[in-house]
Amino acid sequence: MNDLAHLPSGLADRLRAIVGDAGLVTDAHAREPFETDWRGQYHGKAALVVKPASTAEVAAVVKALSDARVAIVPQGGNTSMCGGATPDESGTQVIVNLSRMNKVRAVDAANNTMTVEAGCVLAELQRVAAGADRLFPLSLGAEGSCEIGGNLSTNAGGTGVLRYGNTRELVLGLEVVLPDGRVWNGLRGLRKDNTGYDLKHLFVGAEGTLGIITAAVLKLFPRPRAMATAMAAIDGPEQAVTLLGKLREACGDRITAFEYLPRICVDLVLKHIPNTRDPLSEPYPAYVLVELSDNADAATANATLEEALGSAVEEGLVRDAALASSDAQRLALWGLRENISEAQKQDGVSIKHDVAVPVSRVPELYALAGKALAEKYPDIRIVAFGHVGDGNIHYNCSKSERQAAEEFFRQAADVNHIVYDVVQSLGGSISAEHGLGQLKRDEIKRYKDPLELELMRNIKKTLDPHGIMNPGKVL
């Protein structure tokens, strides 16, 4: 069974001539994995899925769809948290999935860059960089399945932002297929290019609404020779921010990650994820996962972190700490952090927020949002964790009982406004690293400056006058 009847006559044959039988998915059952988001919150229906294998094929596919005025949903690893890569339910949109475009075109170790196609899986790019004795620092929980085109399109963050920045800071050049099928070749590996508007930044974070990223020149860094990782027990977010400041004074830019985990996160992971264990001998209210990376030897890195945490213990800021003494212990500590989302998914539905505030105001976010939510929903369960080092908190809300959580999920709009109003009052953003997608498309109208939205719409209209690129997302 297929839905080709929803397409203009002859279009499917034109697309088949471009990508071949291997590049078309028409059967309804075979399309299902492409039509549902990772969280299972968004379900759409596409006319078909096209899987081009080269930039030339992407350009020809987009030209054909543009000529027919058929809407395009760009897609990579389909790990969006906001429904940004899911079609609507009309059965008229075409998914253009770039997973077949997975070649590393070049590695330039002397220039500390690699040129890669959009369908490359993030973890594979990390391995390629390591093979050249370099580091590609973007790292996040979905790295085994997410693809770099999607990372770029959402300006993904991850755990290394504190030291290396968001994905936007990790890209030097792009290749993009525009909505009319033309190809902009901006694959320049330059760190200085002052020749006008920096067009690549239009497409990074645009969630496929302005064009399809097909390749990128990415920054590489010297590969760290040593990592020092510890889990430190603290009382709460205020202590986390204070500790971050002290560690930065003691360790400088060697701090690569600084992740905050309240106790409830650890409990959820222990409950749902096999082969996990409590990081310390007794439970504490909260923890921070700290990691240093250095080009010195491991003993020096560990001694630096141990000394800094020891001073914090003496001051009463840290209650206890565990320093990883092997790679296995390091991975076990990271497992507690990286499995929180999966544990939440297994535990039941929750209302998720990916928000950012200035680092100094993170404690206020916890205090004010928690108070406002508890006043209206007395038995609410708040699972708020994440990248305190850059002010990005995944502020998730649910109920402890599965049935109650499902009923509570229907209150999402009200819960969103409570959290987002607090975030705005603190000078923050309602989307830190997941994007807007469908989830926050309407919410952004409430919180973003009208002039900003007008400028965004004008850019969209200029590049995509027919509105065929990922319609219903972002704007």
Automatic annotation (TrEMBL):
<dbReference type="InterPro" id="IPR051264">
    <property type="entry name" value="FAD-oxidored/transferase_4"/>
</dbReference>
<comment type="similarity">
    <text>Belongs to the FAD-binding oxidoreductase/transferase type 4 family.</text>
</comment>
<dbReference type="GO" id="GO:0022904">
    <property type="term" value="P:respiratory electron transport chain"/>
</dbReference>
<dbReference type="InterPro" id="IPR006094">
    <property type="entry name" value="Oxid_FAD_bind_N"/>
</dbReference>
<keyword id="KW-0274">FAD</keyword>
<dbReference type="InterPro" id="IPR016171">
    <property type="entry name" value="Vanillyl_alc_oxidase_C-sub2"/>
</dbReference>
<dbReference type="InterPro" id="IPR004113">
    <property type="entry name" value="FAD-bd_oxidored_4_C"/>
</dbReference>
<dbReference type="InterPro" id="IPR016166">
    <property type="entry name" value="FAD-bd_PCMH"/>
</dbReference>
<dbReference type="InterPro" id="IPR016167">
    <property type="entry name" value="FAD-bd_PCMH_sub1"/>
</dbReference>
<protein>
    <submittedName>
        <fullName>Putative FAD-linked oxidoreductase</fullName>
        <ecNumber>1.-.-.-</ecNumber>
    </submittedName>
</protein>
<dbReference type="GO" id="GO:0016491">
    <property type="term" value="F:oxidoreductase activity"/>
</dbReference>
<feature type="domain" description="FAD-binding PCMH-type">
    <location>
        <begin position="42"/>
        <end position="223"/>
    </location>
</feature>
<dbReference type="InterPro" id="IPR036318">
    <property type="entry name" value="FAD-bd_PCMH-like_sf"/>
</dbReference>
<keyword id="KW-0285">Flavoprotein</keyword>
<dbReference type="Pfam" id="PF01565">
    <property type="entry name" value="FAD_binding_4"/>
</dbReference>
<dbReference type="Pfam" id="PF02913">
    <property type="entry name" value="FAD-oxidase_C"/>
</dbReference>
<dbReference type="GO" id="GO:0071949">
    <property type="term" value="F:FAD binding"/>
</dbReference>
<dbReference type="InterPro" id="IPR016164">
    <property type="entry name" value="FAD-linked_Oxase-like_C"/>
</dbReference>
<keyword id="KW-0560">Oxidoreductase</keyword>
<dbReference type="InterPro" id="IPR016169">
    <property type="entry name" value="FAD-bd_PCMH_sub2"/>
</dbReference>
